[in-house]
Amino acid sequence: MALSGGGANSDDMRRHNLSTVLGILHHNRRLSRTEITHASGLARSSVKGLVAELERVGLCFESEPEANFKSGRPSPTVEPRDDVLSVGVSRDARGLTVGFATLGATIVHQRWVPLERATTSMATADAVAAIIDESRAALPADALLVGIGAAVPGFVSGSEHNEVFAASISWDGEPFAEHLSAATGLDAWVRFDAHLGVTAESIWGAGKDRPNVYYLYGGPGGIGSAAIVNGRLLSGNVGMASSLAHTIVKPGGRLCVCGSLGCFQAEVRLRDVFPQADARDASRHGVTPPPVPAEDLRREIALTCLGVRAAVLAFDPELILFDGFLSTLLEAGRADLEAATTVSAMPRLSQQVTLGVPALGSDRLLIGAADLGFRGLLADPVGLVARLRD
Fold first, then answer.
1. Rounded Cα–Cα distance for residues 101 and 224 (Å)
2. Is 27 exposed, middle or buried (0-12, 13-18, 19+ CB in 10 A)?
3. Rounded to whole angstroms, how far apart are CA atoms 81 and 381?
4. Quick one: residue 147, left, alpha or beta (phi over 0 = left, psi -120 to 50 = alpha)?
5. Element (H, E) at 377
6. Overall pTM > 0.85
7. Closest CA to 278 of 342, 197, 214, 176
């Protein structure tokens, strides 16, 4: 909706409305001008002018509408251009993936390279810059890179989200966003990978139009989780809200990196079998994962049931997504995991929870990271393009 308020000047209102229209286009990929009008709450004539300005600066284009045999003149179709790109970065305990995404989160090119677990934040940023330079030939001609978003396997804290704490890659308060900006010259933002995974799935994937989603991701560095409740991503005071990885599922069990015994993350060890995130990710890198012993699989499923029950009680989701190696447990133990979502014998309080896997496949974290990299463009479309092209 249009900006209002006595303190807002016309430039602020114009910038806000351009941001609104571009954001709608980014989340929906292809819409008619009439659909944008309905979604924005702006006047039809205003949307026409805003789309024209976004087209003028090279962010979208209009095309003739398809015949629909309805009365009246059909509305033109608006689509984002494919040469305005965000850089998405996904760092985990195995290595580094760098991808390039259009508005609308379509990945047009990506590259994975192995990295040692203890590779520093600054060295990782230098590797990102090198991949960007090497990838230029594979991108659309005259591609405009507008920002970088990065997914990391740990908590991101600080007033400016500028401190990364990730035990699996030996980072303790690393300013990764600053290092990325220094290495590439682009504005950069960094977030916990599970937060970006659930955000991407809620916009373009399995969680679309579902306001209550819980996301469980099992990767080579451990387990990450995130919750969207009533349409809002939970973050908390230091970024640890909705993280059940450190919930005790076996008192006195294995020692966790957090110092406790028997945490969900420490006890569910399927990552020891899959060096990659899951079977799909393994095949992507040319690895055939070995079969999991039945006894180990039953144990992992039973422990994951405890985590699912805790998630249902804490966040009351309508959908739980199992990602990474945890998708293997869903495939093998769906009946047990579905039973774990029923936490009340009273019919009116019985949860109605769907269990599923991400619709965005192995690109889910990269898409979420690239979406974050569009943050500056979506806040000030015309201003940022002018600055980058000066």
1. 24
2. middle
3. 13
4. left
5. helix 375-379
6. yes
7. 197
Q: Which domains does the chain have, with CATH numbers?
A: 10-80 (1.10.10.10), 84-196+365-389 (3.30.420.40), 206-358 (3.30.420.40)
Give the pLDDT of the chain (390 residues) as one tens digit per residue.
444 444 458 889 999 999 999 999 999 999 999 999 999 999 999 999 999 999 999 999 998 876 655 555 678 999 999 999 999 999 998 899 999 999 999 999 999 999 999 999 999 999 999 999 999 999 998 899 999 999 999 889 877 788 999 988 999 999 999 999 999 999 999 999 999 999 999 999 999 999 999 999 988 778 889 999 999 999 888 778 888 888 888 899 999 888 899 998 888 876 565 544 444 455 445 555 566 677 878 888 999 999 999 999 899 999 999 998 899 889 989 999 999 988 766 565 556 899 999 999 889 999 999 999 999 999 999 999 999 987
Residue 350, sorted as left (phi over 0), alpha (psi -120 to 50) or beta, turns out to be beta
